[in-house]
Amino acid sequence: MENTTPRRPHLYLVDGSAYIFRAYHRLPPLTNPAGTPVGAVFGYTTMLWKLAEDLHKADGPTHLAVILDKSGKSFRNDIFPAYKANRPPAPEDLVPQFPLIRDATRAFSLPLIEEAGLEADDMIASYARAAQAQGWDVTIVSSDKDLMQLVGDGPDGSRVDMLDTMKNQRIFLPEVAEKFGVAPELVGDVLALMGDAVDNVPGIRGIGPKTATKLIQEHGNLDNALAAAATMKPSKLRENLIEHADMARLSRVLVALKEDCTLPLPLDAFELGAIPPQPLAAFLGEHGFTSLLKRLDGGRGSPERATQLHPPKAVTAGNTPATGAARQDTAAMPAVDLAAYECVQSLEALDRWIERGFAARLVAFDTETSALDAIGADLVGISLSVGPNQSCYIPLGHRGSDMFAEKPDQIDRDEALHRLKPLLESDAVMKVGQNIKYDLNVMARFDITVSPIDDTMVISFDMDAGRSEEGIGGGHGMDELAQRHLGHTCIAFKDVCGTGKKQISFAEVPLERATHYAAEDADVTWRLHRLLKPRLSAEGASRIYERVDRPLVPVVAQMERYGIKVDRERLAGLSQQFAEAIAALEGEIHALAGNPFTIGSPKQLGEILFDQMGLKGGKKGKSGQYSTDQSVLEKLEAEGVPIARKVLEWRQLAKLRSTYTEALQAAISPVTGRVHTSYSLVGAQTGRLSSTEPNLQNIPIRTEIGRQIRDCFVAEPGNVLMAADYSQIELRLAAHMADVPALKEAFASGADIHAATAQELFGEVNRETRGRAKTINFAILYGISRWGLAPRLGVTSEEAQAMIDTYFARFPGIQRYIHETLSTVREKGYSETLFGRKCWFPRINSKNQAERQGSERAAINAPIQGTCADIIKRAMARMQPALAKAGLPHVRMLLQVHDELVFELPESDVEAAKAVIRAVMEEAAGPSVAISVPLGVEIGVGASWGAAH
DNA sequence: GCATTCACG
DNA sequence: GACGTACGTGAATGCA
Q: CA A860 → C1' C15, Å?
């Protein structure tokens, strides 16, 4: 189909030199068949390909040219000899790639501009202005901040913008304003003040980006700012401004772009046509860029055709925008090739991989163990990956498939770990894992502290929490991520080890099969990291990842390793006691029913109560079964039905026994004698942690009988447990976020918040009004409805509605918060916490009312619950360093229960630790976020967790 | 494998 | 006019 409407010409100017440096540092060190390094060239080639693919898009190029820096000095060196003088020489494996960049450009048959004595920036500026003068749109493909001076709209509606292909981000006025705080015309003034270390532009000493922006904002431009120095109050800043004013003026000239260079080729020469396939195919073949070569063949001639075969996915809110772009990226990676993986069985081979790891500066890393328990399982092997298909498996603890099989050939485990340790601990090498907390704990047993780390699971969570579509899962497990982002189906664990009774340990898997599985995991992790990491900043998730979740990974890992001591004998005693009571109740219940039945079967119980005994109030759900839950039984009890009370008691004891007193004994690690939970960093969509195997976040406390279980969590001799709780944190955050004056005042004055609410709502405070106020306060946090509130207060829905109305009237702000939150979520598809954590609500605009309203209630709650999670996570990340600084290295943080932290510490440290813990927790939102109500923390100490409350 | 129930914040 | 009704979790149980 021909598009007959003439388009405004759109010129793309590719800043080739800048791209190469960035690509070199971000891409793996590939080599071509001749052994020449081509990592940066590959990145460059892929970028050109993608730009060519965009030809028919509305904002794609009609004209395109590549601008390269010609080596040598520019006119700026005549003005300032030291300009760019402190640049280190290009890395030696980058140097041979420079000429190949020219080759790549010619292979695409694209015009190439390089002029001696001028820098690429000047040439780009001159071409941009020339094009703009003709009414063309211009996109500068670069992220160089100097070029941001050019961004803006022309008088005739044409525009100049920038495209950062690494982040897949357009740069226009808002982005410039975000970076510099000023309009593009003033960017040069800001740069002149702050200078540029990379280009050796001097600027003014002591002035960085923040101060430079502030000065220009305040005084309007550089000259005014320099002139105003004389009238400033005495300070180091004033001195510097006066003393180095000349340096600033010189810098201003250096950062100015020369916009009137002679143009070596006319603009019309840059018109983009179909790309001749032949020279391109030859180039791709020569350098082994087979994935692109295949697409060239598949598209029968040119990247332009390839695009038509694979139309990019439309991007809308609530959709998964990056998926389309990600799919295109993956095409640049070779397909997963199991045959490419190496099984490392000699120390020489291991050393080669360790060397490759250091050279790559980024290694995907995965451990295989004999069971799914990082604290107790044995290490069976380690896999590493330094690039697509560049992956190996190092078997260390395989046993052979049965007692008669020969033990496979493996290098000595301890020697291998000894050699791997420097790589895994090197600050210069990023270790990437999928749920790397697990691997951190495995390696900790061998005294290896893996650092620094990235986690693809957490990265995915921080961008995509809650983001699931029909037919597309929203999880963050590796198999799911591989499927979603790479279109790749991983070897299933059950295909390697089987399931159920026939399941074998990974230690028994033959090496070839184990290598395929394990090396693939590392390979896929590497690929996922390559795709997902750049999306973090592009999608505004860097802050939450870098500042909250990533620092938390080693902290939570340490908590899991500590575990907590439980008193086995005491648990066993309780279990016995409960068992006897259950047996007695069982007899009574059967007697009351008239015949024995399975009390634990809600189906049978419902039939006994409502059919056999003929009680009223039986309501069947959609499964056609009577509901027999607590509220139903309590209602019956109030009506004087004795069996209801007995069943409630039976249920409570059965629950406590099976879920707690029995399960906790079974959870005691034979290795450490303690209970080690596993926290999930991606368990709750709101950003909360979750706890499994066993869940230590739902240990009973609300009833006296359940409380006894908390008393079974104890400290080691000479130590105590300390529990530190945020008091009413969610309500405090709601008061702050919704800006409710009455609630804020109540918190500031330390009042009983539910009593204060009762006073406002009912005019008097007594047990009943306070209880109702408490219920309503919670209802607010959860997204209130008259129908939900009414049964909880035992009133009609009309009465409930009246109370909600009074609440909104007495606490102005709440209704506005709800309204504003919902409209942003409807528009953007996600909610955000005070720290920028996103939570997606793909069903917020659903036509199904129940589904939509459910999303609405969750969306009202998510920013509050999520901000609370962010705050305690920040406290957790700061806790150990703060304790160490205070000389309290023996205080160990063991548990987190959403708004509570549990510590174990020597008795002698109690008072000092209290002060540190309280300070860290109360100040955890700052300095980046100021909460307008105090965050209260209550601390208790005791020999057991129960006693510490 | 799903529904029900109930433990926690 | 019916729907299911508070937010977020995980574990145990019974049953198809």
A: 37
CA distance A325 to A328: 5
Q: How long is the CA A116 to C1' C10 vector, in angstroms?
A: 68
User: Which residue in this structure is represented by tokens 């129908």?
Assistant: A787
Measured CA to C1', the nucleotide nearest A791 is C5
**Whole-number distance in Å between A428 CA and B1 C1':** 47
Which nucleotide, over all strands, has the C1' atom closest to the CA of A729? B9
Q: Is the CB of A629 under 7 A from strand B?
A: yes
DSSP string, A330-375: HHTSPPP-GGG-EE--SHHHHHHHHHHHHHHSEEEEEEEESSS-TT
> So what CATH class is A338-539?
alpha beta
User: pLDDT band at residue A404, thresholds of 50, 70 and 90?
Assistant: low
| pLDDT for res A308 | 28
A899 touches strand B (CB under 7 A): yes
pLDDT tens digits for range A757-767 = 999 999 999 99
Angle value at C-alpha A44, between A42 and A50, nearest 5 degrees:
100
Q: In residues, how long is chain A?
A: 949
Give the tens place of pLDDT for each residue, A596-628.
Answer: 999 999 999 999 999 999 888 787 777 788 999
Return the CATH fold of A10-172+258-270. Rossmann fold (3.40.50)
**How much of chain A exceeds pLDDT 70, in percent?**
95
For nucleotide C5, give the residue with the nearest CA to its C1'.
A788
In this prediction, residues A288-306 reach a mean pLDDT of: 66
CA distances from A612 to A312, A601, A620, A625, A651 (A): 62, 15, 15, 14, 20
The CA distance from A642 to A585, in Å, is: 12
pTM: 0.69
Give the pLDDT score at A319: 36
Per CATH, domain A729-865 is 1.10.150.20: yes
**Best mean pLDDT range from A214-228, A846-860, A865-879:** A865-879
Instruction: Tell me the C-alpha distance between A523 and A364, whole Å.
Output: 7
User: Does residue A474 approach strand C to less than 7 Å at its CB?
Assistant: no
Chain A residues 608 to 627 whose Cβ lies within 7 Å of strand B are: 621-623, 625, 627
DSSP secondary structure code for residue A501 in this structure:
G
Instruction: Check if residue A701 sits with its Cβ under 7 angstroms from strand B.
Output: yes
* Nearest nucleotide (C1') to alpha carbon of A781: C7
Res A90: pLDDT:
78
Across all strands, nucleotide nearest A900 (CA–C1'):
B9
Is the pLDDT confidence value at A314 over 60?
Answer: no
Residues of chain A with CATH 3.40.50.1010: 10-172+258-270
Is the model's pLDDT at A545 over the cut of 60? yes
CATH 1.10.150.20 domain residues, chain A: 729-865
Q: Which CATH architecture has domain A565-673?
A: Up-down Bundle (1.20)
